[in-house]
Amino acid sequence: MGIQDASLPVPDRPGPRQGHAPQRAHNGRMPDLRELTRQFPRPGRLDAVLLRPARRAPVLSVAQALVLEGRGLQGDRSSQAAKPGGRRQVTLMQAEHLPVIASLCALDDVAAEVLRRNFVVSGLNLIAARSLFRDQPMVLHIGADVVLDISGPCEPCSRMEEALGPGAYNALRGHGGLTARVLQGGTVRVGDAVSCRPAAASFSGG
To answer: 5, 80, 95, 192 - which has most CB atoms within 10 Å?
Structure first.
């Protein structure tokens, strides 16, 4: 089962950028590390929205979903936790890692549904949404409304051996995706833009 529904329109995405000279700050100096961590080549794209109704239940690929602040996706088992506010309200997977995982598992391909992450994102390096500086937090925007705080890595579990074969646990280490908290809810749709911005600007009208 692929992650792209052929019935859904695919928005145009700019092709690979040609080589550029190093970008300088307005005062002519090279940007420092703080500035570099706020710069991204382009927005990403939400390629898939996946719901896990219950533990070990088949994953549902949907065109859109409601994201609940402080809980997760409506219809996903994470949002049904007795105590809201945990670190693992939503899980995300880097689309570009899927062929890497398949190669490391000696498989032709790996469907995103097998990995059981909620969002599959392409075109934006998700790990860069975790700020290097505590006084400069970054957040992830999906579509018009949803804001996520990346809370940590989503480590693989032993079930991956069952799903992908012996050695899959080690193949997924470093490629298992990320967990996030929902700071602001709303509706997300396959094809939505995904961007990373400073948290201060996100909640001050910037």
So the answer is: 192
Which residues in the chain come in under a pLDDT of 70? 1-28, 82, 201-206
Out of 3.40.50.300, 3.40.50.150, 2.40.33.20, 3.30.2350.10, the CATH code matching 36-202 is: 2.40.33.20
Give the predicted TM-score (pTM) of the model. Answer: 0.79
CA distance linking residue 96 with residue 78, whole number of Å: 25
pLDDT of residue 1: 46
Dihedrals phi, psi of 163, to nearest 5 degrees: -80, -35
Determine contact, residues 85/147, Cβ cutoff 8 Å: no
How high is the pLDDT of residue 6? 44
Q: Where are the beta strands (DSSP E) in 2-89?
A: 44-51, 60-62, 64-68, 72-73
**Within a 13 Å sphere around the CA of 79, how many CA atoms are in the beta-carbon half?**
18
Contacts of 39 (CB under 8 A, 6+ apart): 23, 31
Q: Are 3 and 92 in contact (CB under 8 A)?
A: no
Helix (H, G, I), strand (E, B) or coil at 68: strand
Sequence spans of domains, the chain: 36-202
